[in-house]
Amino acid sequence: PSARLNAHSLYRVILQINSSDFVKIILLEIDNCVLALRKRLFCNATLALLPCKTVCFGTQNNRFCNVLTAR
After folding, report:
1. What's the pTM value of the predicted model, to 2 decimals?
2. Both 26 and 52 in a single domain?
3. Distance between CA atoms of 4 and 9, rounded to whole angstroms?
4. Are 47 and 60 a contacting pair, CB within 8 Å?
5. Coil vs helix vs strand at 12
6. Are 20 and 38 in contact (CB under 8 A)?
């Protein structure tokens, strides 16, 4: 059996929320667990990484514009 997701297969999505702010998103096809996420850890990582990405993209764009105006 292949592990790839097939567009023609039927999937069941299960959301489970516990009291400790733990969210599981599980995609099942014949009882195979594909994805489980911890909401709190995912949100903290996203908030921590977003400013870095914006700064990096901003500096890349500024360098690109400076090179274009210098030529």
Report:
1. 0.15
2. no
3. 11
4. no
5. strand
6. no
Q: Tell me the mean pLDDT per 10 residues along the chain, length 71.
A: 47 50 51 44 47 46 50 48
Q: How many residues does the chain have?
A: 71
Same domain, 29 and 61: no
68 and 50 in a common domain: yes
Task: For CA atoms 60, 61, 62, 68, give the dihedral sign.
Answer: positive
- Token pair listed for 28: 């099942």
Are 24 and 37 in contact by the 8 Å Cβ rule? The answer is yes
- Are the C-beta atoms of residues 21 and 42 closer than 8 Å to each other? no
Which residues does 43 contact at the CB level (< 8 Å), separation at least 6?
none
Parent domain of 18: 1-37
